[in-house]
């Protein structure tokens, strides 16, 4: 009844096409924290144009896919933005 199999720190899904780790895809003008996270590869910048059904994840091979549960995406984005490089 205890272990729910929840992996800590692994909120991002894998790419459905190649299996690489997904990173949150962020639209709009990035702030300093978002720029830093993007430089470190923790998020990806999708540009200012937002389509009606934007993809929310991307991978190292630039596949993009949507996210039906935006809370998961927001959680991954939050983790990526608050992570620190050492
Ligand atoms: Zn991929």
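Sequence proposed for the structure above (86 residues):
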């Amino acid at each position: 009844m205890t272990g729910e199999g929840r992996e800590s720190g692994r909120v991002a899904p894998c790419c459905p096409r190649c299996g690489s780790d997904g990173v949150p895809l962020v639209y709009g003008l990035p702030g300093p924290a978002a720029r830093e996270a993007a430089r470190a590869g923790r998020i990806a910048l999708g540009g200012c144009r937002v389509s009606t059904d934007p993809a929310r994840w991307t991978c190292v091979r630039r596949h993009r896919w949507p996210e039906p549960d935006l809370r998961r995406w927001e959680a991954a984005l939050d983790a990526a933005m608050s992570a620190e490089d050492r």
